[in-house]
Structures are given as C-alpha cells and as structure tokens.
Write a structure and sequence with these properties.
Strand 10 (about 170-175) and strand 11 form a beta hairpin. This protein has six helices and 13 strands. A six-stranded mixed sheet has the order 3-4-7-6-8-12. A four-stranded mixed sheet has the order 1-13-5-2, with no helix packed on it. It has a single domain, classed as 4-Layer Sandwich (CNF1/YfiH-like putative cysteine hydrolases), CATH 3.60.140.10. It is α+β, with helices and mostly antiparallel strands and about 240 residues long. The two termini are about 20 Å apart.
Length: about 240
C-alpha cells in the first residue's frame, strides 16, 4: 500500500503476500519459521519492489521507548523507536505487528520521520517528540506537517488491563471488570493535534492488524508472527 503524498516521497505499508511467502508471509524480522537466507530474500524483494538498493533500507533496534535517531546513508541500526532524515534515497523502516507506525512528511523542508508507537511509545508521547525533533533539526512547521497512522491493533480488538487503561483515560472503553478496549490511534492523533498539526493533515488507517490477516499480528499469531514494515523516504 502506497500513500498519496506525491512523487517526491516513497511511503507505505507492506502486506504479508501469503500467496508468495509461505508460511507466515513477507516479514522483516527473525522468526522461528524463517531462516537467515529467507529473511535476506524478503529484504531483497522489498528493495526491488521500491526500486532501491537494499542498503537504502534503514531499520532500528526497537525497544518500546521514545529515542529519536537522525539517519543518513551510512547509519547502522540504531537503538531507537523513531528515525528522521532529510537525505534523499534513505528509506526509514518501522516494524510493526499490532503497534502503530507513524509517518511524518515535511514537504516544504524536504524531511521525513518514522515512529514506532505501541502503548508504551504512546504513553511516552513519541509522536510529539518526533514532531519536535523535526522542528529542531529541519525547521519544520507543525501546521504544515503531514502525518499517517498505520494499520494497528484497533479499538475493536485491542484489549488492555486496568493498569494500562488508566494511562489513557480519553482513549479507552471498559468492557468488563478486568478489561478495556484501547484506541491507540485516537490517542496518537490527540498528541499530534496537541503538537500543532492540523486535523486535515493527519491520515488514519482504519484497518485492524488483529482482524485483518493481510497484516502481521502478535496478538493473533503469537511468537510465530512476522513483522510488517511502515516506511517512508525521499526520492532520489
């Protein structure tokens, strides 16, 4: 899936393509069902589909935190949950399997960002930190910044316990004495609006990774789940 942000940016979300990649689908993370050669072939397939060199794909070691890394062509996998760049030909790749991928695009200053936000990242407000980091590094004007929130565990299926629900009073609905449904994308949207983005510049996927088998889901498939890629980069 590609985003309609013009021909100066490469952006989108990968699907599993189970017709090609058995048994778990196209994935970019180690799995009990995937050896290193297969993983390498998946990465090459992805690079070829974007018509870029594989070295242009920049991944991070995601730790469910709020660290933002500046990425260039020579960057080696940082320990972070957000990446930004203003270099052409660098594709920022966030891995998700129920967490939300957030893409940021500053068309005026020719800069992009990609963030990984599960409930921990959302609690840490990585969305706002990503916006602020682009403001500081690129002179981004939040009112002109575009954002995309990817398929993720939805408010219909994302069950959390009270200890997590209490962190997000505006984005949960209680369904039993013990469980709540959490709307991660709603809370992220609130954070982006609080950071100065305009509602009309925020595009939100309605797809749920738990119920839609075109996407990877840890909650649905457990340890055998792969990872989808939410990506963005500036065209060469």
């Amino acid at each position: 899936m590609n985003l309609p942000w013009g021909n100066t940016v490469i952006s989108g979300v990968t699907e599993r393509h189970l017709d090609i990649f058995q048994p778990i689908g196209l994935t970019f993370a180690n799995s009990p069902n995937l050896d290193s050669l297969e993983l390498s072939s998946h990465l090459q397939y992805f690079a070829d589909s974007l018509s870029v060199d594989r070295n242009c794909l920049k991944f991070q070691k995601q730790i469910h935190g709020d660290t933002i890394a500046f990425i260039n062509k020579d960057s080696i996998q940082p320990e972070s949950d957000g990446m930004i760049t203003n270099q052409k030909g660098v594709i920022l790749c966030v891995l998700v399997a129920d967490c939300c991928g957030i893409l940021l695009y500053d068309q005026d200053n020719k800069a992009v960002g990609a963030l990984h936000s599960g409930w921990k990242g959302t609690y840490l407000n990585i969305a706002a930190k990503g916006v602020n980091t682009m403001v500081q590094n690129f002179g981004t004007i939040p009112e002109l910044l575009k954002a995309y929130l990817s398929p993720c565990a939805s408010e219909h299926n994302y069950q959390v316990r009270k200890d997590v629900a209490e962190l997000f009073p505006t984005a949960v609905v209680q369904i039993s004495e013990e469980y709540y449904l959490f709307n991660n994308r709603l809370r992220i949207k609130e954070q982006l609006l609080e950071s100065g983005l305009k509602a009309e510049n925020i595009t939100i996927s309605s797809e749920c990774t738990i119920s839609n088998t075109n996407y990877h889901s840890y909650r649905r498939d457990g340890a055998k789940s792969g990872r989808s890629c939410v990506y963005i980069g500036l065209q060469q």
